[in-house]
Amino acid sequence: MKAIVCLLSLGMSELPDIENMYRLDGKVCIVTGASSGIGDRFAKVLAAAGAKVVLAARRKERLEQLAAELPGALAIQCDVSDDDQCRNLIAQTIENCGRVDVLVNNAGISDAINPAEEADIETFRRVVDVNLNSCFLLSGLAARDMLSRKEGSIINIASVHGLVASAPNLQPAYVASKAGLVNLTRDLAVQWAKSGVRVNAICPGYFETELTQVMFDDDRSSRWIARNAAMGRGGAVDELDGALLFLASSASSYVTGIPLPVDGGWVAR
Ligand SMILES: NC(=O)c1ccc[n+]([C@@H]2O[C@H](COP(=O)([O-])OP(=O)(O)OC[C@H]3O[C@@H](n4cnc5c(N)ncnc54)[C@H](OP(=O)(O)O)[C@@H]3O)[C@@H](O)[C@H]2O)c1
Questions:
Q1: What is the position in ligand 1's atom list of the atom closest to the CA of 32?
Q2: Would you kindly state where each structural domain of the chain is located, as residue ranges?
Q3: CATH homologous superfamily of domain 20-262?
Q4: Which of 30, 31, 36, 76 to mutate to test the pocket of ligand 1 (most atoms within 8 A of CB)?
Q5: Ligand 1 atom closest to Cα of 160?
Q6: In angstroms, how far is CA 49 from the centroid of its own chain?
Q7: pLDDT of the residue at 116
Q8: Is the pLDDT at 69 greater than 90, yes or no?
Q9: To 5 degrees, how large is the angle CA 54–CA 152–CA 206?
Q10: Ligand 1 midpoint to CA 197 (Å)
Q11: Is the C-beta atom of 204 inside 6 A of ligand 1?
Q12: pTM for the model
């Protein structure tokens, strides 16, 4: 009784419905790069929370296989480095599902491990195009719909290497693209903060996927990962679930513009 009186006197609302606070029933969520790794997992998690998921990537068969497992899911082939295909992704989503509630900009590639003085500008441009430029274009297109309804959440999948350098793992284009994505996240968040559209980033440490398989398969690299993550290990992909659901749902209704590291303490060191 005392506690209730105390809550009321502080002007607090009722205690949260903890079981439902991360639910996304009826929400339309786009996940780019849903054909493997983190994107495949994210699509499954959003669907498990009740969302209708739109799966985008270049490998269509993989998307169709995944869509068959997820009730109401839609597979749309999309190379995010192609502007017209990005426009088509958002247009098709709105045509088929009526709106976009959550956009997860997850598609990403890395440059080959190379000292910067030996890297070529074409590779740099290609990585920035996929990892950063596409997020700018897709966010703007999705935001037009979100802003008209004053509601929406955009989640950019950046990296700890958007926050700190990756040397001796030499991938300058990747690091630059992810750092750009972190600050793009802040800028879009501030632009749209009063209009109900939130923009946040997740900054994963090292997780075993197709992108990082060579590193996890290599003794020296996997020891380097374990040494640099304060928790002494790489992450398991399901350890990103909580961050995703938090940022996608109303549980984070007062959170915008943050880069959220999920990294076993990588950037804390
Ligand atoms: N794994 C990690 O440790 C880690 C750490 C930090 C950040 N991340 C970030 O997490 C995201 C997912 O990576 P992942 O680890 O899950 O790697 P992954 O298994 O290689 O997945 C990458 C996804 O991006 C898609 N993709 C690549 N280029 C594309 C393009 N031009 N158009 C559309 N889709 C494209 C791929 O699909 P298609 O080939 O079918 O197009 C694939 O579905 C990336 O942004 C990555 O930078 C990963």
A1: 34
A2: 20-262
A3: NAD(P)-binding Rossmann-like Domain (3.40.50.720)
A4: 36
A5: 6
A6: 16
A7: 86
A8: yes
A9: 65
A10: 25
A11: yes
A12: 0.95
